[in-house]
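## Example record

The block below lists the input lines for one assembly entry, exactly as stored, with component labels intact.
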Amino acid sequence: MRKIGYKKWVIPGGYIPFATNGREPELLSQDKISILNLNKEPTTIRMTVYYQEEEPVSGYPLEIKGMRVKKFRVNDLIDPFPVVLEKEYSLIIEADKPVVVQFLKMNTGHKNVAMLGTIAYGTDI
Amino acid sequence: MPKVWSNWSGSLKFTPGKLIHPKTETELQKQVLRALDKKQKIRVVGAGHSSSPLVVTDELLVSLENFKKVERIDKEKQQAWTGTGLTVKESGSELLEHGLSFHNTGDVDIQYIAGAISTGTHGTGTGLQNLSSMLSGCRMVCADGQIKEFTEEKDGKDFFDAIRVSLGTMGIMTSMRLNLLQAFKLERKEWCTHTDNCMENLQELMDKNRNFDFYWYPRSDLVKLRILNEPGQGMQDIPYAQLQQEYSGWAIDVLPKERSLKFDEMEYALPQEVGPQCFLEVRKMIKEKFRRDVAWRVLYRTVKADDFYISPCSERDTVTISLHQNVGYPIMDFFRSIEPVFLHYGGRPHWGKKHTLKAADISNCYPRLNDFLRARQKMDPEGIFINEHLSKQIFDL
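Predicted structure tokens for the full assembly:
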């Protein structure tokens, strides 16, 4: 049976506002990623963050157990370096097994809370 | 050709005139006598975990990496002599084989135990003094090149109040007699909750647990409560927090944690009663001004007061607050901006971490600094065990 998902996912439109309103972390302005691992075995992922002007930053290792989902805020990534707030970035997620990735954004810096969820672009290339 | 020496984080680099690794006390003594002849200054380097310029020298740098013996173990008195080239992990593990234990460790165990003691390094716990409090005897190659042994019962409390935290400026210690405890086990539990819950219950968390500290995460306003107790003791449940991790074992295995990501750190020791206000002010500043780039946690710990002349915990029960940032980030802008808040609340810098204080500020922070300098002067009248950073920036000699 064909496995569900892809090994590489691209999120071109990352941006975490600095401004935020309300109790944290629930109402924190944030980019959030959900990764579903439908394999029986754990999968290890690594990420690369691209900026408009600076060199890419690679690392951010994470393990996701088999048949489990992991959700994390991009805001919280620190290894090897925090993702800078209020700066356009793109993200590539590479897994050693096929996974499914969803990308969520919340901006509470404005009067009305704005939320957006989207499936990232998956590829095995 | 002398090589560039770098500390653990890479934020401190210099080229010593000569780096030596003596294998025996006699060999070290010969090197010291030779340096005395040449009127060279000498500094001693440990594991290099410190990021302040305590060891920087373009003259003679001594590594004690070959001084690794644990000997003269007295289980009845719960004392042992440990070589000054042992890390906290190495010495703690060997002591455990003899049924003995440190009362506490810092958050990591890769430092040399001698470096940790000499800089007033500490763990957490309102009833627990810093690691320097364990020192009750030492063998040293002194400023006249002689090897001498000192003990608290022979040489007195005043001498030991000076030498316990002395930044390696009173002689080169080759072995230290430590006051220890019978080996004991600890249960470690780590809980996640909101900062507000932690601050509302802070006193109870400090009072009811052997070791308690918390990490504050600037980009989520969550905290990790880290609690260690002897089995069955302390707070077993925390209704306002979620248990994230739990394990137990011998104290030396459970107190420190492994760190793979390198960082630099600024830490200040404050009177315990102002700790919460100071923390809340630091938190506000980081949220308003710095978390665009800063995502590393802030660590809040407690230490029991001691009598040691230049210990950051001297004569007051203490809270320590530490800022961390990834290596590679321009850390000093961040640290320099927060430092005045620490000073406003009566903070004293950790000797082994980043700070920008000059001698006049140091003198204000440490009321017994002159007592220390008098004791140091007796031991090292020619000033061979101090470098430029110590003589100009710290002691104003």
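The first helix of chain B runs from residue 25 to 37. Chain B touches chain A at residues 194, 217, 219-222, 261, 291-296, 326, 328-329 (CB under 8 Å).
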